[in-house]
Structures are given as C-alpha cells and as structure tokens.
Write a structure and sequence with these properties.
This protein is 62% helix and 13% strand. It has a three-stranded antiparallel sheet with strand order 1-2-3, with no helix packed on it. Strand 2 and strand 3 form a beta hairpin. It is elongated and about 115 Å long. The model has no long low-confidence stretch (mean pLDDT 76).
Length: 151
C-alpha cells in the first residue's frame, strides 16, 4: 500500500524512509517498487508517442476551428451594420404615420366637469352586489359588480 503511495508521491517523508529500509531487506517489495516506478516514465513515453501520432490531425482540426471562428466574425461584421441601423426606417415610418393620422383639429374639448353630483342605485342579491353610479349628463355612467367581495 505504501509502495503505491510512494509511486503517486503521496507518502510522507518519515514513512518514505521507513519504506526504503523495508525495501532494502525485502526483494519481493523491491521488485514491486521497481515495477511501479518504471510505470510512470513508460506511460509518459507512451502518451508522448500517441500525442505525436495525433498531432497532425489535431493541428488540422484546430486550423478548421480557427477558420470557422474567423468566418463567423467576418459574417457578423458584414451584417452588423444592417442590424445596427434596421430600426431607423421603422422609426421614420411610425413617425410619418403618427403625423399623418394624429387628429389635430378636433371639435371636442377636454372633459372638465362643473359639478360632482352623483346618484347611486344599489341592488343586492344572494350572489353579487350591483351598483349603478350615474354622474349626470356630462359625466360617464359606471356600473360596479361586486361578487364574493371582488370587483
């Protein structure tokens, strides 16, 4: 167990000295330690060879990725002025329509009531309360229906 920790570099210095003493007297553990110690460099060499084999394919892939990124940037640069200024014609058209169709000469004056005389008729039932508020000739008529405490 300590041999695996030593190979992983996780063994404390005191335990490493104790393990070194054990390995000098035990040939089976020494052989296992030698095998594990050789595994790291062997894996690094194998990984290096695999990386060297895959390097051309990876380089080609990254070249395609970079080309795709640049192509997308260029397409955004080309279309960006369109999206940046596309709202201007719509705003101009809305402004022109507002000017053309806004009622400038109306004969109706704004509402200014002279009195606030209010007549309220109230009708209650089992289901709802209905209130009719008549504010006179020049004021609007309002009907409230209150059902279960909600208007």
């Amino acid at each position: 167990m300590n041999i695996e920790k030593k190979a992983d570099g996780l063994i404390p210095r005191e335990a490493e000295e104790e393990l070194a003493g054990h390995l000098s007297g035990c040939p089976a553990c020494a052989a296992e330690d030698a095998a594990m110690s050789a595994t790291g460099p062997m894996l690094r060499a194998w990984t290096g060879m695999r990386a060297a084999e895959k390097a051309p394919a990876l380089d080609a892939m990254w070249t395609r990725v970079r080309a795709g990124i640049e192509e997308r940037r260029e397409s955004r640069r080309r279309s960006s002025w369109i999206t940046r200024w596309a709202w201007v014609p719509a705003a101009v058209a809305l402004t022109v329509l507002a000017i053309l169709f806004y009622p400038a000469g109306t004969d109706r004056s704004p509402f200014h009531p002279t009195t606030f005389d209010v007549a309220v008729e109230d009708v209650e039932s089992d289901v709802a309360t209905v209130a009719l508020v008549d504010k006179g000739e020049d004021l609007p008529r309002v009907i409230w229906i209150i059902e279960n405490g909600k208007t």
